[in-house]
């Protein structure tokens, strides 16, 4: 489960009787590109974006958008901002996890170096 799905389901992993994973500091950073909309976003909003994606060229995308009225364009803009926000949050979580994991690797390297120095003949 992603962090958002856990919150939407009414709790975290520990509150449902499952122990937290000890091998990862933040296992909620795993993400995929095909996420379920959160916050009540419906199929109608994503349908327009799907239709836009199906247009093979920028010219056809522009023609498609020109046929939309201002209300539909505002809805598309709102959906794009929403998706950008989600992807930004995911990226931020992944960058933080990368930082934590790099720190953990460096700490382990320091331990190995200390052990090697302790047993060396010098």
UniProtKB/TrEMBL annotation:
Record's compositionally biased regions (Polar residues): 25-34
The protein's name in its UniProt record: TBC1 domain family member 30
Region (Disordered): 1-42
UniProt lineage: Eukaryota, Metazoa, Chordata, Craniata, Vertebrata
């Amino acid at each position: 489960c992603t962090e958002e799905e856990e919150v939407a389901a009414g709790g975290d992993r520990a509150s449902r009787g499952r122990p937290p994973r000890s091998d990862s500091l933040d296992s909620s950073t795993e993400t995929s590109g095909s996420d379920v909309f959160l916050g009540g976003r419906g199929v109608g909003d994503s349908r327009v974006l799907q239709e836009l994606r199906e247009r093979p060229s920028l010219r056809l995308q522009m023609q498609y958008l020109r046929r939309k009225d201002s209300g539909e364009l505002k809805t598309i803009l709102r959906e794009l901002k929403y998706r950008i926000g989600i992807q930004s949050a995911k990226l931020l979580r992944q960058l933080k996890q990368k930082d934590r994991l790099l720190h953990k690797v460096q700490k382990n390297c320091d331990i190995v170096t200390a052990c090697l120095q302790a047993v060396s003949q010098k």
